[in-house]
Amino acid sequence: INECLRSNYICDDQCINTNGSFYCKCNNNNSSSAEGMTCLDLGNDKSSVAVVLGTIIPIIFVTVAVLFVIFLKRRHNNQRAQEEINLATENTRAQTPVTYNLPVSCTLRKQYIIKSSRDSYQYITNCTTIDKKLVFTNSTNNRLVVVDADCRSVRYMPLYHVPEYITKIGSTTVGVSCTTDNVILLIDISTYSIVHTVNTSGHCYGISYNNNHLYVIIGKTPTVMNLAGKVKRTLPSSSHKIKHIIASRKYLICTNSTTIFCFSMKGSVKWMFKYEKYKTFRGITTDQKGNVYVTDEKTDTVIAVSDDGKHREILRKSDGLNKPIGIYFDKKDNSLLVCNCKCGMAYTFDVTFT
């Protein structure tokens, strides 16, 4: 009997009859299935495998790439966090402020009205004293406000740029940084004239003068330049978003909104001050003893800070402060000039060390 002729035994390709049985044989080197009756097309299987692999491999690659990027980002964040921890550890003294034993006190000398009756609104961002005059930057009206120390006159000097920060340079000259315009103006207050203009490579923020050089925050980088605007050197870029700067012979004092930093001239942190209460640090100045004075806009205070972490609120709202920003210490007569940013009031205080 030819078993291959029975209808219930069907092979896909060839049926080989044997004595009392049969078996199936596949053509073209195809492989038979487990039951031996069905042939598998290896070519089609290989194509299917190729399709599957072609779909899976790109997905695996993209997944690995995404995971690698996440890993790098987390490692970067961890490194920055570790840097902050190290910085805080190195400066434990300044991170734990003491609110007593800082022998500094202030007494009101004079108050000034620096807002014109014609101005419905003005914003004063910084101040300094020079040649018996008080000079303020008025950013909303693009001008300097110059007030005689004896209150006899107020004069306004219009500018083509928006003044933000100011520093005293000589007996009659000030340097003014105009942040959004990327410009520094050197202005002679005695003649009310611009004597030199310096174009900067980016937004210029805090500005300070020391030893014939300007120290300016350009972008995030403290930059040292001569009075002609030629860059002499830059300090390591800061990740602390500093905006204000004061240069002394050995150190740079800088602030962001929450922290005071003391940097060496090479950019390393010598000490820092941070206190939970203060979150809106603005203007900054120093006295001849190394004390730092900073305005805090939200708490309406001026805080004096020493390099060992001691601090004291020497001026408050009760002293006339209302959103203070600008501040300048005159080392010649131990006076402190403070200006409110919106109400048009400024004050000078006599500072005593007890």
TrEMBL record:
<keyword id="KW-0812">Transmembrane</keyword>
<protein>
    <recommendedName>
        <fullName>EGF-like calcium-binding domain-containing protein</fullName>
    </recommendedName>
</protein>
<feature type="transmembrane region" description="Helical">
    <location>
        <begin position="50"/>
        <end position="72"/>
    </location>
</feature>
<dbReference type="InterPro" id="IPR001881">
    <property type="entry name" value="EGF-like_Ca-bd_dom"/>
</dbReference>
<dbReference type="GO" id="GO:0005509">
    <property type="term" value="F:calcium ion binding"/>
</dbReference>
<dbReference type="InterPro" id="IPR011044">
    <property type="entry name" value="Quino_amine_DH_bsu"/>
</dbReference>
<keyword id="KW-1015">Disulfide bond</keyword>
<dbReference type="InterPro" id="IPR011042">
    <property type="entry name" value="6-blade_b-propeller_TolB-like"/>
</dbReference>
<feature type="domain" description="EGF-like calcium-binding">
    <location>
        <begin position="1"/>
        <end position="40"/>
    </location>
</feature>
<keyword id="KW-1133">Transmembrane helix</keyword>
<keyword id="KW-0472">Membrane</keyword>
